[in-house]
Amino acid sequence: MRSDEPSPPNGFEAFLERGKAEEVWDQKIQKGLKEAHSRGVKILLVILPDANAFYWVNIAHKFNLKLGGINQSLARDRLGPLSDGKAMLVGMDVTHPSLGSVEGAPSVAGVVVSIDGHYGQWPASMRAQRSKQEMIAELQAMFKERLTLWEKQNRGALPKRIIIYRDGVSEGQYRTLLQGELPQVRAACKEKYTGGRSPEISVIVCGKRHHTRFYATNEKDADMYNGGNPLSGTVVDRGVTMEKGWDFFLQAHSALQGTAKPTHYVIIHDENGMTADQMEAMTHNLCYMFGRATKAVPLGPPAYYADILCERGRAYLHSLYNPRDNMTVRSGETYDWETRSPWLNDVHESLKDSMYYI
Question: What is the pLDDT of the chain when averaged over all its residues?
Fold first, then answer.
């Protein structure tokens, strides 16, 4: 390289200075972008409306996740059983047609899986299935897809531990989940693992539909900046929990308004041998790793991502879920699964291994 040739830029930054004519700075920005582009720098230009900094941060978080980046990470000593990077976290959820949808409209099942040791990227598999069927019908195929990607991203290795956060399951369906979905997970693992190896699997059900609330009994234990709610990170695992079983309530977040609502976690299957403290601390720390937030969220990110994924699936079936908005759907029409095939299987090949849904 000649001494008079400028070195390639590390990045491109444009500072808008008060008092300068806008057109002058527009020219400088344009020149800088052209120079960076000519040197092979990939540029993503986003024109944002006049909004506050939180809006811009949210947009930046989403772009980074969609492009394969990692927004947050925790120190290894905070990850507990996840610290060696050999665990795969899984989020699963199913959403159903609501009142006013076409009769018999499909439900949408979603599975998200972490693929890196920082637990920052969560690609997904999604399927439509029979109406109002809570158990995931094609879980074996979906799980195998995610194991294959995990293997690809981790130099041919497979996870030693699989920890599943299952959203949307009522107390009366725990046995059905263990008899219907867990065998499909095992079958997918059997197809991928060789030599008699198998991962240690834990299944945690996340419950949001309950009326349990907690209140601090003295001022020092209250978050006085957020309505006097209990401090974020409050765990209740005795007294009001199940008599037989392993469960706990966790309020990981600080409520922005009103009374904070904890999430109810029920461990219905555990082969990893975690203690109650390990399980609670791991779940709480994960709540700080939700990719599009700058604070802790109330629901563990695996289940939260799965919930968002299912909402994306609802958008793909908008004509069936919101027939009043679609003139091609007649009032009172019943969906016929055998003769009318909707969107059924994931997204375009170039998107399916990314966080397109975020």
Answer: 86
